[in-house]
Queue: 2 jobs
Job 1
Amino acid sequence: MAQNVRVGGGVPLTPVQPLSPLPSMPISSPGYPYQPQQQPQPRKKRRGGLILLILLLVIVLVAGGAFGVSYFLTGNKASSPISVTMIKGEPIGISDGTIALDTTLEDGSLKTQAAQQLKQNPNNINAAISLLNEATNKNSNDAEALIYKEDIHVIQSGSPYVTLVVATMISGDQVRVGRDDLQGAYVAQKEFNDGAKLRNGTLVRLLIANTGSQTDTVPTVAHQIVQLQQSDPTFAGVMGWPYSGRTQAAIQILSQNHIPILSQTASSDDLTNASPYFFRVAPPNKQQGIQGAKYAEQTLHAKTIGLFYDPQDSYSQSLAQDFRQQYEGVDKNKVYTEQYTIGKAGTIASAVHDVLNKNIDLIYFSGYATDVSTVLSNLPPGNLPVMGGDALYELGGYQSSALGNFSRLRFTSFSYPDEWDVLKYSAQKPAFFNEYSAAFNPDEQHPGGSYGFTRADNDVILSYDATVTLLTAYDIALNTGKQNPTPEEVRQALLKINGDNTIQGVSGQISIGANGDPINKAILILYVDQMGRIHMEPTYLGRFLK
C-alpha cells in the first residue's frame, strides 16, 4: 500500500491503514432445524417399545443437533438469504447488520459486538446502536457501520422502504475497493432518506453482499440474492459488482430471475448486450481505450509502445484490444504486446525487461494498480511514461517501491473529485461533496483533502451515482402507482433514464441506452506531477452536464 502519496491540490494521501485483524466471534449462517421423519416401531412389548422409542428420540435429537450445527455453519442452500459462510477465512454472503463483514479496522470488534446484539436481541436494538455509535466515533469513515445504523432507523420508523443489495468485496485483498463502494452507497442512502426523495415516504435500506477476494464465490452470493428476491417483497435490485469479472459471474443467475444489476465501474466490452438486466454508469472500455490512444499519440507523441495485458482477464484483455485498435489506426504507430498474469509480479517484471529492449516511447498497462506498481518499480532511470485505464485510479493499491516513478503515470478515469472546479462548474457542484464530508468527517478531525474522510475518489463517486440511478428508477416505478415495484418493473424504469429523465451525476450526465450502457458518458485523463500530485487534464471526452 502506498505511503505518503500526494494527490490533486498538493494534499497528501492518507488512506485508512487496516490494523492487524482483531479476533472475531464465529460467523455462521442461520438454518432451519432438521426434523427427520420417525419410522413406526413394532409394539411387541409395551415397556421395551417405550424405552426403545426414547432411545431413538435421543439419537435423533443428537443427530439432528449435529446436523443443525453443521447446517448453521456451512450455509446450506435452504438457509436464510441473509447469512454468511466462512470460506477460506473470509465472510462470504449477505449481511443486514447481524454479522460484521469488515472486521480488520480499528472498530472491528465493536461492529462484531453490535452484530451479536442485533442477532440475539432483535426487539431491543439500543445496545446495538450504542455499539455502532462507538464504532463510528472510533472510525468515522466506516460506511459499513453507518449503513447498519441507517438500516435500523429505517426498520424502526415503520415507514415503507425499498431494499437494495450492494454487491462488492469487503474482505480480502480488494477490501479498499469495497470500502469505497459502501461509502458511495451510504451517501446516496442518507441523502434519499433525509431528503424524503422517494414517493410515498419510502425509505432506503441497504444490504451488503460480500464476495471477498475470489471470483468463484460470486455464484453462491448471487443465488442468495435470488432467495432474497423470493422472500422479500421490498427487494428491488443490485448495485455492483465493481469488477467486470465479478459482474460476469453473476449476470446469468440474476438475469434468469429477472433481477436488474447496475454496476458502478465494470467496463469490459463483453458486458455490452450481455443481458437485458445489466446496466452500468461507467462507459465500456472501447470508449476509454479510444481516448487513451488519442492522448498517447497526440499529447505524449508516442509512436512505439509496449502494450501489457492479461489475456485471461476480461477487463484487461478488452481495454488492451480497444487501445491497440485505435492506436494502430494512426499511420506509422507500432505496438509490441507483452502478456502477464494478474497478481504474478514475476511475469510483469519479465515483460518489462523484454519490452525495454525494443526502444519504445510508452508503456500502456492494461490492468490494475497493484500490478502496475511492479512496472513502475522496475523502470530504469529516465522519463519513459506509463499509461493505463480507470483501474489505475486505486491509490491504496500502489506499493511504496513504485512511488519513485509515480510521476510517470497517466490514466483515463470516469471521475475526479476536483472535476467540477477544473471544468469551471464550481457554482453548480452537487450536494454530494458536502454530504460526503459531513458523513465521514463529522467532527472535522481530518484536514481538507483527506481521501476517505473529506475527499471522495473514483470508486466512491461512481458507487454514489450508481445507487442514485437505481433509486431514481425505483421512484419512476413508484410513480406508476405500484406500492412495491418488482425488480422487473425497476428494470423497465432503468430504460427510461434518458431524455427528460437524464440524471446529473457527480461523474457527469447519466443517460442509459437500450443496451444498458451510458450514453456519451464523460471520460477524463489524469496525470501525476513531479511532486506526486494527481491532476486532471482540462479537456474530456463525452458529455458532462446533462
Note: Residues 46-74 form the longest helix (29 residues).
Job 2
Amino acid sequence: MKKLFAALALPLIALAIAFTAPVAAQSSRDGVWIQIAARPSLTQAEAEARSFATRLPDVSGFALGGGWYGVVLGPYTRADAERVLQVYRAEGQIPRDSFIAFQRNLRSQFYPVAAEAAPSAVPAPVPAAPATPEPQPQTAVQTALPDETPAQARRSERELSREQRMELQVALKAAGFYTSSIDGAFGRGTRRSMSDWQAARGFEPTGVLTTAQRQVLMDEYNAPLISVGMARVEDTKAGIALQIPAGEVGFDRYESPFAHYASTGDLGAQLLLISQPGDKRTLFGLYDILQTLEIVPLEGPRERGSDSFTIEGRSSKTVSFTQASLKNGEIKGFTLIWPAGDEDRRTRVLAAIQSSFSRLEGVLDPAAGGDAVQSIDLVSGLEIRKPKLSRTGFFVDGSGSVLTTSDVVAGCTRITLDHGYQADIAANNSAEGIAVLKPAEALAPAAVAGLSTASPRLQSEVAVSGFSYEGVLGAPSLTWGRIADVKSLDGDTRVARLDLAAQPGDAGGPVLDATGAVLGMLLPQKSGGKQLPEGVSFAANAEAIRSALDAAGVAPAAQPAAAGSLPNAAMTRLASSMTVLVSCWE
C-alpha cells in the first residue's frame, strides 16, 4: 500500500484522555486502525512514527507489503476510530486523508521496537474534545527522491504536461489549499496554494514544488485509492475494462446481466459489471428492476435519459451508485456498493471507476449463470428488496385514497401501494383497526368501492378480495364465505363475524356482497394477542368505514344501484380493480 504525505507537525494538544473499557474477549483482529502515513523505506517510516509519537498516543508502525511501511494509530473499536478521525482531523493532528485500516492490511510490526509482532488486544484511548494548542516546530517530510534547488524545481516543472499540472491543482484543491479553477496554469493563486502547502508540510515555502514534493502531494492525494488497491481489469466476457478496488473486491461469478465482483476485504464493498444486449425497452426495464434490489437503497437521486440512467441509493449502512448506457445494441455499466461513513474514499474510488470505464468488444452471454440457484426472491443472484409487512387495501375514492388495516402502517418509514406508489397516513384508528391512506400523487383507480347502505343479512354469501400471500401471487384472489353474525363476540355492532377462512395477507381487503357492494373491511386474524379459530374472521362494517373516512376528510363513493347478483367473473373483475397491495417498509 503506497501512501506518502507529510508528518503534520502541528500543535501539541493537551488532551483529556477518556479510556474506553477494554473487552476481555476482543482479539486484535476485531479492532481497527487509523493509517496516517506510509513511506517507501523502513528508515523513513521509523522516523515518521517517532515524529508522530512525540505528539500522539497509540502510534505503531507495520509493514504494508510491496516495500511500503505504514504508520497507524490504534487499535480502536470502529465507533471510537471514527471519533478519533474526527477529533484529530479537526485539530490538524493528522493528515486530512487519513483513513480507517483493517488488521488484514498490516504485516510485521517495526515500531515500537520492543512491541510484539501482534498488536495489542486492548482498545486504545480515545481523544476528548480539542484543547488550546501550544506552538511546536514543523518538521519537513523526508522522501526517497533527491532534493532540488528552486532553479532545478522550475526546470523540472516546465517538463510537466498540462494534464500533470492540472492533477497537481486537483490535489492541492483536495488538500484544502487551492480554490480556483483547474486549468493547468500556475498563476499567483496556484503559487500561493503551493507555498501554503509547503509551509504546512514543513518545506521551505518557495511556491515552486520540487520533484520530491510533487510526489509527496500526489501520493497524499492518491492515498485513498492506494488503500483499496485500485487496479485496471479487463473483463473480456463482459466486454468492459475499468479500474476496480482490487484490494476489496474480486471476481466471483457471472449471472447475466451481471459480472459479480464480491467483497474480499473488511470494507464489505461490492462491484457489479452490467453487460447485456438490448434496446431502450431493455434499458428501461433494467432501470426499474435495479430499484427493487436490496443493494440499491430507496433514498437517493435517480435520473433516466433516452439512452442512459444513473441511480444513487443511500441508507444508514450502504451507499450504491449505478450507471448504464445503451450503445450499438449493447447495454453496459456498473454498480458500486460501498459502506456508509467512508464518503471521501468512496467518492475517489467512484471517480476512478467512471473515468477509466471503457467498452470492449462483445457483451455477456445472456445464458451466463443459467445453472445458478433460482428463486423468485432473487434477480441474477441479487436479493429483491422485501417490505417488512404487506396487507390488502382498497380504493375508496377517485383520487386513489385507500382503506386498509392499522397493523400494516405501524412502525413504517415508507408505505407503498402495489410497490410503486408512495402513500401517507391520512387517519389511523388503531382502536377499530382501520387506517386511511392517501397517495403522494393522485391515482386513477379502475374501480372504487361502493359502500353498502343496507344492513347485511345473516348467512348471506360474501367474498373477500385480498393478497392472501402478501403479493407473492401478483394479483388478489377471492375467498368466499358467509356472514355468521352482525356483531362481534363481545357485542360490538360495528364489527361483523364471518364464517370465512382468510389468510394473514387478506387483512384490509374489502368484504363484498353478491351485488358487488362493500359491506366491510376484513380485520386481522390476530388481534389483542388472541388468534381466532380457523374459519372465523371479523370485519369492520360499512358504518365503521364511513366514520374512518369522515375523520380523514374522504368522501366515499356512492353505492351503485343494485342490479342483482354479479356473475363470478364480473365479481372477480370488480374486486381485483378496487383491491391494492399495501406494503410497509423499514
Note: The CA atoms of residues 256 and 366 lie 5 Å apart.
